[in-house]
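Standup notes, protein team

Yesterday: finished cleaning the Noccaea caerulescens set.
Today: Putative ubiquitin conjugation factor E4 structure.
Blockers: none.

Input for Putative ubiquitin conjugation factor E4:
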Amino acid sequence: MATSKPQRSPAEIEDIILRKIFYVTLAESTDADPRVVYLEMTAAEILSEGKELLLSRDLMERVLIDRLSGNFSAAEPPFPYLLGCYRRAHDESKKIQSMKDKNLRSEMEIVTRQAKKLAVSYCRIHLANPDLFGNSDKPSGGLDNRVKKRNVSPVLPLIFAEVGSGSLDMFGGSSSGVQAPPGFLDEFFKDSDFDSLDPILKELYEDLRSTVINVSVLGDFQPPLRALKYLVSLPVGAKSLVSHEWWVPRGPYMNGRAMELTSILGPFFHISALPDNTLFKSQPDVGQQCFSEASERRPADLLSSFSTIKNFMNILYSGLHDVLMILLKSTDTRECVLQFLAEVINANASRAHIQVDPVSCASSGMFVNLSAVMLRLCEPFLDPNLTKRDKIDPKYAFCGQRLKLSDLTALHASSEEVSAWIDKDNTTNGAGREDGNESRLLQSKEATSSSRNVSGQNAKSTTKFTFISECFFMTARVLNLGLLKALSDFKHLAQDISRGEDNLATLKAMRDQAPSPQLELDISRMEKELELYSQEKLCHEAQILRDGDFMQRALSFYRLVVVWLVGLVGGFKMPLPSTCPMEFSCMPEHFVEDAMELLIFASRIPKALDGVLLDDFMNFIIMFMASPEHIRNPYLRAKMVEVLNCWMPRSSGSSATSTLFEGHQLSLEYLVRNLLKLYVDIEFTGSHTQFYDKFNIRHNIAELLEYLWQVPSHRNAWRRIAKEEEKGVYLNFLNFLVNDSIYLLDESLNKILEIKQIEADMSNTAEWEQRPAQERQERTRLFHSQENIVRIDMKLANEDVTMLAFTSEEITAPFLLPEMVYLFYT
């Protein structure tokens, strides 16, 4: 008869479980597993105390400390060992569920829970004090030398595995091999006080920042981005991030570029498809990888590259937006986010200059990314009816202390006028109370507003601004320094490419006439430059122009800008008040200029304006383009005409824009009148180049007037103006039209004589070949230059003469002498 197996006592079962969890033994054994450590000294102490050599929950922490403090050969380093303890405790807790004795099962569950809690607690202690146990963790084999030097936190691979999707981690190894046991990270981060976790979290943020430095959008940026979002979603993680000394770096030499490189979020915002200066170049090289020798690539390949870059950039935008949103929702961290954004904007104010210093200013990629993220933050108040625009306080522009807006050129007021007005009206009010029916998100954002001490020249007051005001003005500044600056760079790249291609064609023509080694070198250099220009241009196109949602959000924001600005002068009604309100007069000029620039670019992108409500833009342009009393800069008002030119049906190719001219009430009443007035006003711009600038501006006005003459309703308005203003604006208009025509025709005829002389010289082949090569090159360049000038001047003169033919129909013009008419038509 078989004998029954002896029953183990609860103490023995507890001992077995704890030995399996902690890989220790109190009795010398021949265990084959080298990881099991014999705690000889601990066993001797327990025996001296008259206790059995059995592990128990009372001895658990004592045994763990002795195991971590001892110097045992073949023992695991502290963190992997503690992580293993947690994993084994988790496994044992599952096995315990099969115990039939409920009381025993309950006791053993307490033991495994305590073991897990102890493992997590000592993980925190070890990471906060790596040298405490004298056996610091060594980086895993997958780390490269750079990462080894940084001694990356061992928690980071666990977070990557937690938030990842099984892809390669940032250290070159598979994240699946370093997964945390179930529940470990939750217990590690959520059940502890701030002081114990803060140094661990700060190290993690530094590691995350390091993993994405100089990483382009084609690099593996997604695991760090997801890890960043995971950490800030923890209340303790968000608090630790904004209290980090690198959240807003300080220092006497801190500038925009240094902030981009050293702040925690800066390297994340640097991830981009746009090329950066060679000192800060990101890898993989997007231009080289996606757009090298683009002219020889299949269109399908280019479209695929555009789509890939767009998708990756939107993943980045969404991730960064989520991070900022989490921080903005909390009243404990919101102010720090606004401070970070303001510091970045102020430190990079010089990005608005024509020439940007890449060493002192952050990259275009960072500011384009920041533009996209800020536009997403604005979405709650960009509804079609713009119902929350009244919550934007105009006093933020001159009373807010967060952004340095006082140095910006205002729409009309001088800096002295602004100071005097603030000094006079030093009593400032709050930006408005929150509506109780608003969404909880907007309530949470607006409930805690930034409080700043605002000083006039002789008075001080405290002003609170809603989050909507903060976000509105910050977004306008970021777009000016980011998206609009990038669009300007794109335009200049296109011009550089066009000039480069012309120069290359000239060089090749010269090589055919007189080949030389220097010419070959010049041609080779020019071809390389054009290749780099082409790559950079396509990178801009991929990240910005091909992203329809990005452009739509920007247009929606600038629609809010113009509607809000019009509200400052009493709304969409004419005529405008004779005295410009100071709230409008003090607004930064670039608010309007950026809106016009964006409309011009969007008008040249197929389908970019589809679904955009253009009526508000049209009303704004008609109201202000001929009003120097409200917008002082004549070039800015001239840019409004350029927008209208893009919207002419024959230019836009869209039937949607025709209604803006032919069925728009304000357009029918004031468009022709204001165009004629601007035509006259642009004679004197105050610039030293005003004489030459006026021709291009009047060219745009002439094209628009020629189109409007074909529209019966506008032609009738024109005839009415001609009769009403026969001795006023209309007479001045005709006078300037005649003067321009005479000058352009005269200049063209003189240059034609110069061209004919050069042609005669070149036709005499024998004499031409005897001239020095340099002289021939200079004469050839002059020939092509004069040709272009004559072509442009004759086109402008022809437009003026054509317009003169139909504009003088409705008015007696005694100053048009027969000789002058003969000159025009011959």
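Follow-up from PR in the comments: Residues 138-149, 166-176, 427-461, 811-826 have pLDDT under 50 and may be disordered.
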